[in-house]
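Tutorial handout. Part one gives the primary structure; part two gives the three-dimensional structure as tokens.
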Amino acid sequence: MTAEENQHYIEFRNVYKTFSHPVLKDVSFYVDVGQTLAIIGRSGVGKSVSLQHIMGFLKPDSGEVVVSFQDITPMAETELRKIRKKVTMVFQSGALFDSLTVGENILFSLELREDYNEQNKEDVVDGLLKMVDLLDFKDSFPNDLSTGYKRAVAIARALAAQPECILYDEPTTMVDPIMSDDLSNLMLRLKKQLGLTSIVVTHDLDLMRKVADTVMFLYKGEAIYFGPVSKLQECSHPHVRQFLAMDRVDIEGPIEET
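Part two.
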């Protein structure tokens, strides 16, 4: 199938992946331009592995992975680098450079932009920090920030690359409820203002309901639900019912104070 025939911005077609045990089993889903998909389910069911396939860090054992309307499954690393300029990932850790200030972390993403002079780059950094409400922290170091603020900085740094799509890996895990709400509001604002396509891996049902258009529920590597968020409540699968009965699932660890 050619790029022109790929209708969805991101799509999994019958994807299988096995390590010591099957991690993804016949998984199919899609995300259209400007839409947000939430991938939910308990730990170890293949959520983050799905994101790694989209970034091209992993290849499926069988099936196809479409990103930016292109089948990336057979692509070599040189081709995948072009895809990663369009699709960026905000890691759960934030993956910031501890030795650089907040502003320098974002500036680092602009160093290769030949179309910007030094003043342009500073203006972009300031604009991005304003967008995530962190301009006052420009000269702070990551270790001075809470987990939630680090993730907001990581989002700003991701936006510096002017991506078409952002992948969020557990953006509200280990943050307090107020910061969780701030992060979800930021993600929703970026979606509306910039028209970004996005996928969010989360345990947070409030986040899912606020930002996602569609949701995929993974259980033991299988997609037991894929469809509108509004219809998830109607799913009769017992594991979906159990999950929805919980107001919020914080499996990864305790809440951190800001």
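Part three, for discussion. The chain has nine helices and ten strands. Strands lie at 10-18, 22-31, 36-40, 62-67, 70-71, 87-90, 165-169, 197-201, 214-219, 222-228.
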